[in-house]
Design goal:
Layout: E1 2-5, E2 16-19, E3 29-39, H1 41-48, E4 62-70, E5 82-85, E6 95-99, E7 104-105, H2 112-132, E8 140-143, H3 149-160, E9 164-169, H4 172-180, E10 185-188, H5 194-201, E11 207-212, H6 219-224, E12 226-234, E13 257-259, H7 270-285, E14 293-298, H8 302-310, E15 317-321
Amino acid sequence: MKAIMVREYGGPEVLRLEERPSPEPGPGQALVEVAAVGVNFVEIYHRRGVYKTQLPFSPGGEGAGRVAAIGPGVTEVSPRDRVTWMSGTGSYATHAAIPAEKLVPLPAAVSFEQGAAVMVQGVTAHVLTHETYRLKPGDTCLVHAAAGGAGLMLCQMAKMCGARVIGTVSSGAKAKLARDAGADEVIIYTEQDFEPEVLRLTAGKGVNVVYDSVGKDTFDGSLNSLAPLGFMVLFGQSSGFPPPFDIQRLAGMRSLFLTRPSVFAYVTSRELLLHHAQIVLDLVVAGRLKVRIDRTYPLAEAAQAHIALASRQTSGKVLLIP
């Protein structure tokens, strides 16, 4: 098999394609022939060593493919099954040994590319809009990076909940993508400050919830854009980590709620994983949730995929195709 390996922390150049022995599925594992790999920002942090991972390692938690073999005790899947996953390891490879309990059946109507593109961001959008803050008709939400992979999913999910959606993007082209995904109002933050514009669009009231995956650059403005008792949902930090926060500030900001959720806290059992994933995949099959794949790269070009994602110039999902 071939796999991308990281033997030292650093820039994209540390992602190197290597020949490796094909893994044997152990107890509770399935060996999957990987057809498509979802590239996520967290893997940039793993590569840099911001999130420590024991060296050497093969990155990648999200993918889709076909089961090639199963290990002892596996009952969840069978050889030849089409599957997808969002919390495996070593997915930047032609083959990966994944715990069978983490594999989700992939409907025939959903391509491998769609399956690899929708799991992390689709399930994240679903839990953020239905669990972290339960959007309801009449709510207004602010979605940062609304033309990114997660942002496009959030816009669609929020509209399904009946909410008014305000999105922020960096360009006119991205504004169109956000509107097509359901955003009612789009702020091009390179042309105007989003904070006063949000207040103008809400007649000074602010929004009920901010979904913020940007972090440092938007954190304070996001807090200031909230209505009384509003929810600040920080679920990423593509611009960097916000500085340490004095929680006493919330008392002077109309009793806001601040949370830093991780999607994986919502799928701690196979039952929960299948629940959320099935909803997302059913929406894809029904044509109600559109999966935008911005670009694909061969496995050997994983470094280019990381560069593209880190540039924040992508609109939708970045995939590797082994």
